[in-house]
Design a protein that fits this description.
Distance between the termini: 39 Å
Oligomer: single chain
Number of strands: 3
Strand order of the largest sheet: 1-2-3
């Protein structure tokens, strides 16, 4: 739904989207999100954008944990750029290898066959 946000300084002039995640109608909401996307945004587009944020945060955590994104202790900008470039290259390689080993179209085909066989 569209809402006006009330802050200490007063009501904001622009409407925002308020998205409330409630997996079970009998339990309290689990997650709230405010979004400044345009009013013309569909519900599907809005949810997709919100979920993309989770994906980006997960990627950042993976790069910190698995590739040492947060381990740079140098003092130069050039050294930091080198470190970040290597981490991103390693991450891109791993993502490419995963997608080669488990292509997205294979997942869809397997689901299609299991549904066809069940019918």
């Amino acid at each position: 739904m569209r809402v006006h946000v009330v802050r200490k300084s007063g009501i904001e002039a622009h409407e925002q989207w308020l998205v409330i995640e409630r997996p079970d109608p009998l339990t309290p909401p689990t997650h709230y999100v405010l979004s400044t996307l345009p009013k013309s945004t569909t519900r599907r587009q809005l949810v997709r954008r919100i979920k993309q944020r989770w994906r980006i945060e997960r990627t950042y955590e993976d790069m910190k944990g698995e590739f040492g994104l947060d381990h740079f202790e140098g003092r130069s900008y050039r050294g930091w750029q080198h470190h970040i470039s290597l981490v991103l290259a390693c991450y891109a390689f791993v993502v490419a290898e995963r997608s080669r080993a488990f292509p997205p179209e294979a997942r869809g085909t397997q689901e299609h066959h299991s549904v066809a066989n069940a019918a």
